[in-house]
């Protein structure tokens, strides 16, 4: 639904005209997988799929949200914010309100219609997009008053992460909220997950990031995530470092024999993946699409063989993509065991790649893929209507 359609829906639901539109994008991680909880490097980009809130301030301390995706409506008070088990989609907005108020910000209530075209449950971070869109909605609802402005940028991202960690109860890292807040059209965002320093990196012209939702359940992802995290911590202890971020390739080459074979393979992925991210940033800055694509390929192979978090479905997408001319690289993205894979493909070959995936992937897996051509887009914002 576009903004005009959401404005019409708002008028139908609330019987008045909205005053603002707030939005925030989903994201895809180009390279740097399972490095964030090792204090490493990641390179996500915001995609041209958003969560949007069309709204208007209220004169009281209530927030009333009408969700088009969930065909549901909730109202909660800013004076008593409680987690709900009924309309769990609203916990992201409730959590943001809670985090902002705990940080000392005075909020105004608002009515809002919320809609997202970030696919839910596919690993493109609809949750972070919802959180950042809600931050923007509170900023709009309180704009023009004497109260302190709601934060933006990195500070807003940290508060949104607090909402998901402490209120929703999901132990995510900072990457999703950071890129949803700080993304810029035509750029990826290089993030140091230890210092939270970040740098915009230009994306090359003439190529598209094709995101493929495998339609495969991620039932093993949570348990595997916890297991891999524990294995990385075991490796770091054995190598006498705070995290695997502190292990260079040279140091690992000398000392990997001190680790059990399985733990060494897990550590090898993380250590070399961090270097691949740094090399990928250099390749993008040089406009070297071929080098960047090769790094994507190596990343997937490492995730499949060393970290063992790929799957038959993800491998099928990657294999199909790599067989199509004009595809520079392909890899799984996200935690693994389902979710999405991505391919970097020449613009002129997007249709050919899409056709190949839609033809061959169901034959190999019995599942129907969802294919989303994406471009790097701007981060969260709001404006008056």
Outline:
The protein has 385 residues and is α+β, with helices and mostly antiparallel strands. It has 11 helices and 12 strands.
Structure description:
This protein has 385 residues and is an alpha+beta fold. The chain has two domains: 208 residues, Ribosomal Protein S5, domain 2 (2-Layer Sandwich), CATH 3.30.230.10; 168 residues, Alpha-Beta Plaits. The protein contains eleven helices and twelve strands. The strands form two sheets. Strands 1, 2, 3, 4, 5, 6, 7 and 12 form an eight-stranded mixed sheet that branches. A four-stranded antiparallel sheet has the order 9-10-8-11. Helix 3 packs across helix 5, helix 4 runs antiparallel to helix 5 and helix 8 packs antiparallel against helix 9. The longest helix has 25 residues. The mean pLDDT is 95.
Let me know the largest β-sheet. 8 strands, mixed
Identify low-pLDDT runs. none
Radius of gyration: 21 Å
- Helix amount: 40-55%
Topology as a string of helices (H) and strands (E):
HEEEEHEHHHEEEHHHHHEEHEE
Number of helices: 11
CATH topology of the largest domain: Ribosomal Protein S5, domain 2
Total domains? 2
Quickly name the level 1 CATH class of the largest domain.
Alpha Beta
Report the average pLDDT across residues: 95
Per the principal axes of the C-alpha atoms, what is the gross shape? globular
Proportion in β-strands: 15-25%
Structural class by SSE content = alpha+beta
Cα-to-Cα separation, first versus last residue: 16 Å
